[in-house]
Input
Amino acid sequence: MKKLIFTHFLKDTLFFFLLMSLSLGLIVWVIQAVNYLDFITEDGHSFKVYLSYTLFNFPKIIHRILPFVFFVSLFYQINRYELKNELIVFWTAGISRFQFTKIIMGFSLIFLIFQLIIGAYISPSSQDKARNFIRNSNIDFFPSLFQEGKFIDVVKNLTIFIDSEKPKGVYNNIFLKEGGAKSRVIYANKGFIKNLGNKKYLELSNGNIVNIGDLKKNSFSFDSIDFNLTKYGGKSTFYPKIQELTNRLLIKCLNYYKQDKLDQFKSEILTCNKNIITNIKEELFKRFYKPTYLLLLSSIACLILFISKENKKFTLYKYIIFFIGIIVIIISEISLRYSSYNMFGQYFFIIFPLFSIFCFNFFAYIRSRKNY
Output
């Protein structure tokens, strides 16, 4: 009987959690996707690359909103059961409020493991795959980026000016300026984009090239040349960020730092130095310890069990409990930032949820011994 009652409650909570996660996650994803439109409008990547990149960032969104959605879902269900007098079924079945709290915390372990898997494995992997779409993509949308009478500098070390486009696809009076250690300026009377294999070229005709060196410059004219566009990448960040790296690589860097062997660390995608150790510590705390705060949030949501809806201040207490939960979420974010900077911040981030969980459960145990 008790198992059946709890199964019904947990199913309701899980359904509401999934519904809210998808709804809020999609809203955040759409907003974020709009911000990523720069990949097309400014960096010149294709719509396929843009869509793939945004889709593979969805697990990161779920990981970030999970604590809030979990707390709201649990708070909402307990409050709904209380208002509909459905919690009486638990009490008449011989379940104490403290036992209810323990069951809910056990249920929270499922979400804790879920967040840990997303944060430590799925999210870094999906973000790295998203970055790979940017790394491996060429500037596919050069034609759409060319605009008459405007300087285009969406790619690194290259500026393009097109005077006009007549007829469609044929560019007139083209100026190209390559940057870098040695630069050159190219002028062509006409040009058009063509594909050779998997590469894009700008075929230029009737023009001049001016090579600018450190001490001298030289120029020559040409009838026709192919200017390779594929070798130019966008201004997007190509190297993986800390949150996109594997746990193994981050832990390896941290161990080399602790052993004072940073000069022996070898990796093609990570430069391990003292400047990033703080970020690595913060990332590891976020992946492996921050999910602990879900247990604290479940304890806070269960405080509603110890307030009768007949109490005149029930609504006020309910808002206070919800406010406390939101404050804890904010504290978890702020303390995470300081956890890697000093010992106090680290100890606070680690001890705060454990101490708070103990206090809330001790309170639940004492109050459950009283008659309601």
User: Anything to note?
Assistant: The chain has two domains: 2-137+240-368, 142-228. The longest strand covers residues 183-196. The beta strands are 151-155, 158-165, 171-178, 183-196, 199-212, 217-228.
